[in-house]
């Protein structure tokens, strides 16, 4: 993990029902400038895992750097963290399937995994897992934004 990343990306997703209406949120902090940017959005019919992924996708999409900057992704989603750090290499080797056999089931949310992998490859990524609803200030703020984003779809 870089000592001081260029950007810290905090993310969270939420769903009312699973599936159901969902929201995502991202907070980007730039330690060197102190600037903070908040993003949020949602979908009418989705899952919690998809919203967790959309938070990371939209946060990374918002970074408009020409150079390979260091980004620390901070999430309470083991699905996102382990997906990007452990599982994705096997999925790619198995042509986005959850096993080596040709008839193995496809990876769930493959559309978002492909997008997230492509975006993450643009940056010098590090990852930090935080327990959800444990008082982590930015995680709690992302949770509030994600839950609020659901209201547009009720």
Strand order of the largest sheet: 3-2-1-4-5
CATH class of the domain at 7-78 and 123-153: Alpha Beta
Shape: globular
Would you identify the CATH H-level superfamily of the domain at 7-78 and 123-153?
Ribonuclease H-like superfamily/Ribonuclease H
Assembly annotation: single chain
Q: In the CATH classification, which architecture of the domain at 7-78 and 123-153 applies?
A: 2-Layer Sandwich
How many beta strands in the DSSP annotation? 5
Which structural class do the helices and strands define?
alpha/beta
Q: Quote the distance from N terminus to C terminus.
A: 40 Å
Average pLDDT reading: 95
Element-by-element helix/strand order: EEEHEHHEH
The largest pleated sheet is described as:
5 strands, mixed
- Segments where pLDDT lies below 50 for 5+ residues? none
Give the proportion of residues in helices.
Answer: 25-40%
The count of helical stretches stands at 4
CATH topology of the domain at 7-78 and 123-153: Nucleotidyltransferase, domain 5
In short:
With 154 residues, this protein is an alpha/beta fold. It has helices at 48-61, 78-93, 110-120, 137-150, and strands at 7-15, 20-30, 35-46, 70-75, 124-129. Helix content is 36%, strand content 29%.
Summarize the topology:
Layout (H helix, E strand, L loop, with lengths): L6 E9 L4 E11 L4 E12 L1 H14 L8 E6 L2 H16 L16 H11 L3 E6 L7 H14 L4
Parallel strand pairs: 1-4, 4-5
Antiparallel strand pairs: 1-2, 2-3
Helix pairs in contact: 1-3
